[in-house]
Design goal:
- The protein contains 14 helices and 16 strands.
- The chain is an alpha/beta fold.
- The strands form two sheets. Strands 1, 2, 3, 4, 5, 14, 15 and 16 form an eight-stranded mixed β-sheet that branches. The protein has an eight-stranded mixed β-sheet with strand order 6-7-8-9-10-11-12-13.
- Helix 10 packs across helix 11.
């Protein structure tokens, strides 16, 4: 036995050492991270000269200069003097735009959909309000540089699954850590309105194949709705109890519930709920739920939003459109129903923004807006749908979304219209830093372009 013990001890020590290795690497990564023990290095001073400046919120300057200092836009105009210490980019023949914002994605939370180890979008259960997308963001995802290549500097990334999926984060697409990328978190609470049958983005054409939903499906939907209402009522009661304890110390404090704790800002209207709803019934149901519990509502998906546009306008509820590059929802819909949806909402006076809904398709964001512009949406409105409108919807329009003095320098320099397919991004700044535009696509192109 003594001999066996002597043999086993070193093996246990070795196993223990290997178990500690991941923790050691984590500590090292924090120690060498720019955010550990020191602030980020100074962003420096830059000047983009002789460019067409598309400010979005104001008049376009046909030939002007943008000065960037310490991460912010310091000056804009046709006759702006360039600081002596500025690094100058001659943008003759080029255009400057605010960086584009994708309003509903899973960017940073998933890499390869068919490889489970790379997917961190969904936790178990129907109610996961305390789940934070920001903590799961992978800053080194290969999909982030690909998205930047087409002019996207900022994105809302959200958990998925269940009835209350968790907390979305608004991130800039540059940084060594999730905290460095954070622009605002939580930016919204992701919810999924229960669907009857197989409609909307969760089923598509299966409804036509499988026929009308049965009684069992109706009952399941009602149970889900009842559970969602109860959770919201529990959150209201939890918030009231917590406020009562704060004002009267004689009241015994109730035990902490992390899920209900995370719902307090939602119930108080401090952060919006981003409700995934496509069908007319689901959109109306989401509006009714928001009215009943005083929620700050944003509809995501919005396939049938034009059918309830009057109600959306009256209640000032914005819509995140995620299926512009899509086929008609049913065989009776016009071929261009998805393309023209944004134009219909614009005519009805409904605030909207565009999203891709995924991680791998964020690079296609400009083409969602560009296609909408080709099917009735004014071009300047299409551009606003990927810049200032999402910034306004999520309450960060004082920081990003347009080219204005004092805003964060998230800028894109292009050789043409940013929504056109043939346009290339020549320079990009995020938080005032010049960003490397190389990515997996460009590396593969360089590797194989001369092969026959």
């Amino acid at each position: 036995m003594n001999t066996i013990s002597l043999i086993m001890r070193p093996r246990r020590a070795t196993i223990f050492a290997f178990c500690l290795l991941p923790f050691a690497f984590c500590l090292l990564s924090f120690a060498f991270s720019p955010s550990f023990g020191q602030s980020r290095p100074d962003q420096g001073t830059y000047a983009i000269r002789n460019a067409k400046i598309v400010t979005v919120n104001g008049a376009t300057i046909e030939r002007g200069t943008v000065v960037i200092n310490d991460g912010k836009i310091a000056a804009i105009g046709a006759n702006v003097s360039v600081p002596g210490n500025a690094k100058v980019i001659d943008a003759t023949g080029l255009s400057v735009y605010p960086g584009m914002i994708d309003s509903d994605t899973t960017l940073g939370l998933t890499e390869v959909g068919q490889v489970n180890a790379t997917v961190d979008t969904t936790e178990l259960g129907d109610f996961k309000a305390n789940m934070k997308a920001l903590t799961a963001v992978n800053p080194h995802s290969e999909l982030i540089p690909v998205a930047r290549m087409n002019g996207v500097t900022t994105a809302i990334t959200c958990p998925r699954g269940g009835l209350i999926s968790g907390q979305c984060a608004l991130i800039n697409l540059d940084g060594w850590t999730p905290q460095e990328m954070k622009l605002m978190a939580p930016a919204a609470m992701q919810m999924n309105y229960p669907v009857l049958g197989f409609g909307g983005r969760r089923g598509g054409g299966f409804a036509q194949i499988l026929g009308q939903p049965g009684e069992q499906q109706r009952q399941q939907r009602e149970r889900q709705l009842e559970n969602l209402r109860k959770k919201l009522e529990d959150a209201q009661a939890y918030a009231k109890a917590k406020d009562a304890v704060a004002t009267d110390k004689s009241i015994p404090a109730r035990s902490v519930d992390l899920g209900l704790e995370a719902m307090i800002p939602v119930i108080k209207g401090e952060i919006p709920v981003l409700v995934d709803a496509d069908g007319e019934r689901e959109i109306r149901g989401a509006i009714e739920l928001a009215d009943r519990y005083k929620l700050k509502l944003i509809i995501s998906g919005g396939e049938n939003a034009p059918k309830v546009a009057k109600m959306l306008k009256e209640k000032n509820i914005p819509v995140i459109l995620s299926a512009v590059l899509a086929l008609p929802g049913t065989e009776d819909d016009p071929y261009d129903s998805a393309y023209a949806r944004a134009a219909e909402l614009h005519k009805a006076g409904v605030k909207f923004a565009f999203s891709t809904g995924t991680a791998s398709d964020v690079r296609l964001l400009p083409y969602h807006a560009g296609t909408a512009a080709a099917f009735g949406l004014p071009k300047d409105e299409a551009l606003k749908g990927v810049t200032i409108y999402p910034a306004q919807i999520f309450g960060v329009d004082k920081l990003v979304g347009s080219i204005e003095t004092g805003k964060i320098a998230n800028l894109v320099v292009t050789d043409g219209d940013i929504l056109e397919f043939r346009t290339k991004v020549k320079h990009m700044f995020i938080n005032g830093h010049p960003v490397d535009l190389s990515n997996k696509h460009t590396r593969l192109n360089e590797k194989f372009k001369d092969r026959q």
